[in-house]
Amino acid sequence: MKAVHFGAGNIGRGFIGKVLYDNGYDITFVDVNAEMIDLINKEQEYDVIIAEEAKSRQHVSGVKGINSMTDTDKLQAAIKDADLITTAVGVNILPIIAKSIAGPLSERTSDKPVNVVACENAIMATDQLKQAVVAISGELGDHVHFPNSAVDRIVPIQKQDNPLDVMVEPFFEWVIEEDAWAGEKLEGVKYVSDLHPYIERKLLTVNTGHAFIAYFGSYKGYTTVDEAMKDAELVEQLKAVLAETSDYLTTVYDFTAEEQAAYVEKIISRFKNPYLSDALNRVGRSPLRKISPEDRVVKPLAYLAEEDRKHDALVDMAAYLLRYSDEQDPEAVEKNTFIEEKGITEFLKHYAKVEGELAKEIAERYNALLFDKENN
Ligand SMILES: NC(=O)C1=CN([C@@H]2O[C@H](COP(=O)(O)OP(=O)(O)OC[C@H]3O[C@@H](n4cnc5c(N)ncnc54)[C@H](O)[C@@H]3O)[C@@H](O)[C@H]2O)C=CC1
Ligand SMILES: O=P(O)(O)OC[C@H]1O[C@](O)(CO)[C@@H](O)[C@@H]1O
Questions:
Q1: Interface pTM (ipTM) of the complex?
Q2: Name one GO cellular component term (predicted).
């Protein structure tokens, strides 16, 4: 079985590549990073290092690479021949991937089914990829399958001697829509008939929680997650944020309060992993995406505000996000320039689609933070 995976980054090598290798797939990584692809083709193997005391190593071998900027013919041939196509590139890059795969996918014949799965931090990311593909190729036949998925494994920015090796947390969960999947299922993957509860629970617990640590932690002057998690006030407020997203999740879905509390506890213990040094500017990257209406802050916040339920911790979180700066992150720079030129209310309307009373609450909190900072 042949897999083509777009994005030879942290999740690509440290999570998806490892699961596919364990399932016996021949893996071809596709990336725009020429150095990474050259190294993959040279070494054809790497280690996944588990972030726990023993730092055990799991070997992945027989991998190949394609540079999507220069090897376009090779890429087209690989897409025509693959049994599985996966991505872990960032949800905003999916329209670019669509341009590479739409042509060769439309040339595939009905006797050769293929699964196409986006593995990104976004609700129903594969649907976004499918939409972009179909806009180019027109409807594809029933042999091209587009299951949505949820992926959960914390993989920080890497500092390994061998740049192909990748350190990951021990925990991982990959959940895929069962009905949309064709053929033999992957071992180590959970298949479910309705993905919505899983993807929302993951995004609005793991990713909301992590993003809160990034934005409040940065506000307090920390630079890594483990440093920030030693701050008792931050952990208290993190729990308050997750109590609000838990209220959303247990109201909208069938999770019981006990189940969700256990899930939250497990996630907080993952954030405290002392063997995983994770930079706050990685976890907080792309604040414009993270403040967008369907993402980890505004989705639960808008619902709770609309239903008149407690939401002040998420309002605080939005204010910390709005105060966040990182000169290296183009989205953080764009955010701050927009706020400076047009103000908070206009920013919330434009990027978060938040207006009215909720926008007022967030702006008040943002202004109070500004006042605190300037007077301390
Ligand atoms: N790192 C983590 O802990 C987790 C990340 N995710 C999600 O996985 C996705 C990837 O994240 P990471 O692996 O952390 O990022 P990363 O930055 O380590 O890897 C992304 C890779 O995609 C490549 N890329 C960018 N544009 C491309 C293109 N047009 N064609 C092919 N490759 C391209 C980059 O060169 C890079 O190697 C994101 O959507 C992220 O939200 C999901 C769960 C956990
Ligand atoms: O990859 P994104 O969406 O920018 O956000 C980073 C998040 O993804 C994770 O890497 C894993 O889901 C978390 O560590 C963090 O919450």
A1: 0.96
A2: cytosol
